[in-house]
């Protein structure tokens, strides 16, 4: 029997309305488990009712203690220390304020200098094993709040909330020029640019893409925007801002480098979702980085 307090174990207590349900039915209807996730737990973990191992077809009774163990996991990258700030951490999620210029996960050209390597080095120093599952992704030069799920269920449930529009995400961006409208909604589909593996572009053949923005502060040659993502596409904000003629400062992919800032001026400021274990709403905020503060001194 596994201990019931680690990050790979969840415990539920059934109520009167759960009596007679199969375990798999209960998990799907009451806790949003997917068939795929249940199948993975069957293969890699175990289920218990009142401390006895059971199959997922087991019928439930009121007051049953359901214990799920998702299966032990190991690092999928080499531990290697790097600097990053932790906003919050518990058994289910690690929330990081990612600095600019840090790659999130290993690639061919970045094998041991990524955030994933740094997370595993931190966990290794604490004697913890596990896999870091990135719920949201940030480009190397984008800073801000990044959510890492520490077990299969946490990853599934937060991604499910994102799929159904239940996660609220805000960004700050510094964009070129003076905007005529102080707020607006950009509704323009985005697709991969033909002939490129990286660039995206507004295209009628693309996926639905909606960005809401408001001008927080207008400066002579640039503006600070607060942006809410109503969809979550690759490079969405960068493509949409360039599309309306106000590209992000320093975005060399969709515009030009800037003498004002040494990277694309995009920061993931906050994310709000229901916590996978207790279902309570959580808000996580990443303060503006130094390079943003230099360009917005009265707001710092």
Describe this structure in words.
- This protein is an alpha+beta fold.
- Among the domains are: 61 residues, RNA-binding S4 domain (Structural Genomics Hypothetical 15.5 Kd Protein In mrcA-pckA Intergenic Region, Chain A), CATH 3.10.290; 101 residues, Pseudouridine synthase.
- It is built from six helices and 16 strands.
- The strands form three sheets. Strands 5, 6, 7, 8, 9, 10, 13, 14, 15 and 16 form a ten-stranded mixed beta sheet that branches.
- The N terminus is likely disordered.
Which class of the domain at 168-268 in CATH terms?
Alpha Beta
Name of the CATH homologous superfamily of the domain at 168-268: Pseudouridine synthase
Sketch the major β-sheet: 10 strands, mixed
Secondary-structure class: alpha+beta
- Please name the CATH architecture of the domain at 168-268: 2-Layer Sandwich
H/E series, N to C? Answer: EHHEEEEEHEEHEEEEEEHEEH
Total of helices: 6
Whole-angstrom Rg: 22 Å
- Strand fraction: 25-35%
Give the overall shape. Answer: elongated
Low-confidence stretches: 1-5
- The count of strands amounts to 16
CATH level 3 topology of the domain at 168-268: Pseudouridine synthase
Report the helical percentage: 10-25%
The end-to-end distance, rounded to whole angstroms, is: 51 Å
What is the typical, i.e. mean, pLDDT?
Answer: 94
């Amino acid at each position: 029997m596994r201990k019931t307090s680690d990050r790979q174990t969840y415990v539920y207590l059934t109520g009167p309305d759960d009596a007679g349900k199969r375990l798999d039915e209960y998990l799907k209807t009451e806790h949003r488990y997917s068939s795929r996730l249940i199948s993975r737990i069957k293969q890699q973990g175990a289920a218990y009712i009142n401390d006895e191992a059971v199959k997922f077809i087991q019928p439930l009774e009121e007051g049953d203690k359901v214990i799920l163990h998702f299966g032990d996991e190991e690092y999928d990258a080499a531990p290697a220390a790097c600097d990053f700030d932790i906003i919050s951490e518990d058994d289910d999620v690690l929330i990081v304020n990612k600095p600019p210029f840090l790659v999130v996960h290993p690639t061919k050209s970045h094998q041991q200098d990524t955030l994933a390597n740094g997370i595993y080095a931190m966990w290794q120093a604490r004697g913890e094993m596990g896999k870091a599952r990135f719920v949201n992704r940030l480009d190397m030069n984008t800073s801000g709040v990044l959510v890492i799920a520490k077990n299969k269920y946490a990853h599934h449930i937060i991604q499910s909330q994102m799929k159904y529009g239940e996660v609220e995400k805000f960004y700050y961006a510094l964009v070129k020029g003076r905007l005529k409208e102080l707020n607006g909604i950009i509704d323009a589909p985005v697709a991969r640019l033909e002939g490129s593996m990286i660039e995206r572009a507004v295209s009628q053949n693309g996926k639905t893409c909606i960005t809401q923005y408001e001008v927080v502060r207008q400066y002579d040659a640039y503006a600070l925007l607060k942006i809410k993502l109503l969809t979550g596409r690759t490079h969405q904000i960068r493509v949409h801002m360039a599309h309306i003629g106000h590209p992000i400062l320093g975005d060399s992919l969709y515009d030009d480098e800037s003498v004002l800032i040494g990277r694309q001026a995009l920061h993931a400021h906050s994310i709000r979702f229901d916590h996978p274990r207790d279902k309570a709403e959580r808000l996580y905020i990443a303060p503006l980085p130094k390079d943003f503060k230099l360009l917005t001194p009265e707001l710092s």
